[in-house]
Fold each of these.
Amino acid sequence: MSEERDANSLALPQAPDVGSDALCESGDPAQQVQSAFHLHADTLYRFAMAECRDAELARDAVQESFLRLFRHLSGGKRVRHLRPWLVRVVLNVLRDEARRSLREAQVIGQLQASQDQMAAAEPSDLEDRIRQLLSARERQCIELRVLGYRYEEIADALGIRCGTVACLLSRAMRKLESVRRAQP
Amino acid sequence: MRVLGKLAEWWIVLRGHPGDGQILAYIEDEAPARAAVRIEAHLATCQRCAGRAAEMRQSLQALSGLRLVPESGEGWIEREAARLNMALAAEVRGQPAHSDAIADDLLRALLGRAYESCSRTRARETAALLLGSRAVEAVARTGMAGGGGRK
């Protein structure tokens, strides 16, 4: 049974070595941030892109998260679990940006209209249909899992319990199954 | 409907079957060791749950074939690393990041021109549409928020 489990549990990327979640031992914060950037920026950018669907905003969010890491380390503070920490910062940056955009849209009244148009648009493919069915939390869990985050890391990043991550993922899976079944 | 779904889930758990979340955690090797042993033993004897586990494995396979998360593209990391290095250097010097400073200067110049040549409202609208989030900050910096210019 466990052999069968091993064979089937490799469908999604596995989490990288535990060591990559820690910052390098060098005392220089800039160097630490640079090496962390090479390890995690790509994953973080893909997550940010999946969340906001805006390449420029995703790039800025990733840059901002590493700058905040630099300030954090320069202030003599430590980061225990880097991968979830970075995801949290990216989510905060995206949330702040969304709020700011909304404020601007309220002043101008035009951006909102274009966003509404985008939201009302018919989903173009299977991925879009799945995304529309998922709740924000389910979507974030799935995205992070697809990117190779472990349940513990997802829980840490989203501020929820491990069991909740499993529940959200299974619920998302069920929705995924329903979309697949409905496929002609 | 959602409540009924929850009740059904609880009913399954109360009858001694693992929930979907537990089965998924087991398949993904994420269940705590003791729970994994219990679920493994259960799946060996319960056809319903074994079937559910098989379905989930199929869904996991399907999920890995979907493109729910976009790719970053070739050379992305090098370009962004260079940008980060500039920003870090600026941080060390205690200045705003270089690219931000240039963008701010450009924005101020653009807004100044727009402000002189058309109405204040139009200038704000144009700036916000063109430059998105930076516009509001820039408006504040150029002192346009308080009034002046052609109405």
Amino acid sequence: MTGAERLRLWRQLQEAGLTAGEEPPPLEIATPWFTRMALGFAGWLGALFLLGFVAVGFGFVFRHGAIALVSGLLICGGAAAMLRLPDPTDFVGQFGLAASFAGQFLFLFGIYDSIRPGDVVMLLWVTLFEALLVIPICQPFHRTVCSFTAATAASLLLARLQLLSVVPGLLCLAVVLIWFHEFRWPHRGRLLRPVGYGLTLAALLINGGLYVPHLTGGLGHELFWRHRAPLWNWGGPLLLAVGLLVLVVLLLRREQIALQEPAALFSLVGAFLLGGLAWQAPGLVIGTVLLLLGKSGGNRVLLGLGIVGLGGYLSSYYYWLQLSLLVKAGILVGSGLLLLAAWLVLHRAAAETEARHA
Amino acid sequence: MDSKREQIVAWFEAGAIPAGHLDQALRLSGVRPDRNAWRVFLERLLLWGGALLCVAGAIYFFAYNWRDLGTLGRFGLAELLLAVALLVYLRAGADGLVGRAALFSAALLAGALLALFGQTYQTGADSWQLFAGWALAILPWTLVGRLPLLWLLQIGLVNLVITLYFQLWPGHLWWWNDNVLQLWLQFACNLTALIGWELASGHGGDWLRVRWLPRLLALGGGICITWLTVLRLFDDHTGRWLFDLAAFCGWSLALLVVYRRLRGDLFILSGAVLGGIVVVTALLSKLLLVRHAEAGGLLLIALAVIGMAAGGGLWLKLVAAELQQ
């Protein structure tokens, strides 16, 4: 947005009586998400070399788990303090990011080395530690990475407890609630949005929407179905379908569309039918949820993630062996025809409305 | 700020838009859709979603290789679907939503038809030949379709053909090994497409003004040249890696000039900064660590990476401020 466009937008809002002052606040140069991501990757790279420095220069840290644990905690604490300085320089900010990543690895290595926990306890540690770091370390990329790691570790933990099938539904509900209410707490936006992106990425991974051959190997998709316990055959997907329905109801309420109106009935029936896919093709539900959330908040990143998630899911679904290709083809063609029929109904209704107004 | 949404959110968080007025502000600025915008969005979602799910289902179906249907039945079905998609395109025209979805579906179905041919007659063709045939078959549609998504498919197929070819026929050409040659060819392909797109976007219609496609092409080209430069830094001991490094520097310089001065694209500049950090880090590692990894060298590189990222971030902020003015 250029300065002129910005001023024009301010005047437009001011004329409508929606602003609290005469002039717009001084321009704050925000860093776009892609720049944050690029610099965040550089932070990871820096963390790798910092870890290498500790391993070569202070080898005893890696030989004694307790020392690694304490050093990791101290480094993370230092990083949090650095990033909370009133006006940190760019170097300090970047150093804090790299130090925190290195500190996290040291701490988790220390836990593993000192108490030798089983899978479940280790995953619990990762979940709790990463979730706790989201609050003190106030750097958007860091918060997204920690939320993503915590949510993924929690999903793997639930998988070990034979409860993974409820994870997509829980993540879907969390994503819906965070993004739908992102403006409810004005001073919490800088915490909620990065967390929202982290949970969104975890939801895509767990549902096979972030399928990268040779890298993830459809990790989420495989886990989701391998660890599905009989008790949750219905409960897990039901939770996911409920996530979609909740979103549609919230959107209808926000748009002040009464539930008896044809538009509301159309939306609810559509959500109900689409929710049925949660049992056999859950990634399509998550992708649709992200597209709706992205559109409702004007958030192009979420829209992009929804499109990537749907495309990725259609690729990973092919390799999912629990259903034959024939059954999967039937599910996809059936869903596609349903969407095309819904498009036809909507298109005709819109044309009739336009004709009446003409 | 790259969008109205982010600007309004920043004003809201600074207290310049009271909480009770935020919803109205988002609606007035068009960030939050009104009923009409929702209808347009849902129409697009339903039509594109429906078409793509049907095509994906058809591809899965042909991959299942249902023998009960018979050869004639399978080919008849594939050709019927392709014909229907093309008829819909011809009837609806190239500029409408329906026509575009139909043409893209037809392009995907053409690939399914070729795969079915290879599956049924066991022609012995390699997989790269299948994808090359597919890319050639849809080229005329790409040229007339005025659809960026179809161009993405076309360029993606060419990249895939190069990858599959070198997987099957690894070999050397002059001083390039197969991995490096593959990356060079993919870089050349993405670079050519990027230059073509940027040149055409100044003279063509609205459909050429989308920014996501040149950004993806720059990303693809950047990944190839960065990766091959890093590979050669560590693989080559004859000094030829200097050629790749010079090419990387040329690429980065060109990006900085074009996307700072002419196009003003922060996305591509951010990618260029990250690529530069990766290559300089690799170069430092080659110089300081390859023979003997010492703590001092590792710390120096860590600090260099952090310094470069901080400097790059600061520079990108300055560019962002320039662009916003």
Amino acid sequence: MALALALIFFYVPNDADQGYSQRIFYFHVPIAITTYCLFGWGAVNAARYLWKRDPSLDLKSYVPMHLGVIFGSLTLVTGSIWANISWGTWWFWGDTQLTTFLIIFLFNCAYFMLRFSVEAGERRATYSAVYALLGVGLIPLSVLGVRFAQSNELIHPITFNSNGANMDGSMFLTFLVALSAMLTLAVTMYLVELRGKRIDDRLRTIRRLAEGRA
Amino acid sequence: MIAELAAKSVYGEFAVKSVAAVYGLAWIVTLAYVAILNAKFARLERQLDEIASLMEAAADA
């Protein structure tokens, strides 16, 4: 992360079109990609849960969904700050990518309403898993669907297209370092939170047993 | 330093402040997450102490 910040502020040149504000891109896009990865990983574990019915996979599906919402909130806020500079408005409903990302984000926020409205157990895990799988189906709509939209609807910058990355070498290097840093941060947060929740579960079990003996 | 950076930018000081807001926000969210996790682990530690007390009481009885 330190290397990414050093490259962003001391190495990469100002963008010819967007100037200094383009530096927002090096955090905004990796955060957005990390959000998709977290929702994707949540859905993979949801599918594994439905197949194997192992309760630990339900937890492995829940934690990335929770982190995905945190990263998704950051994506929306950082994107709005960038839009305020570039478009002169915090939000533009006419932008397909913005709107589809918001739909995915809100859909995944509702995951928690569903999860906590059902009592803990197999039924809750099954409902949550099915919902997580439905949510991940919306991601291709945001990533690929907007590229098939009519060109006059596209005002959101497209970082990658069929010709590769739309940036020069130093910018692409900085972007890759920032993306690696963000993915590493997300994986670390995932592992720490997962471990915390497992310890919490085991402590509850031990407490029940200890109270039974005391 | 902000004034120097702003002079070099296309959109001036507003862009510098906006970039600072984005990176500051990411930093604050990460710190808040660490603080919440720290509180959670402190709670787990307290629960562990309570369980240890219960086990000791059961062993003494």
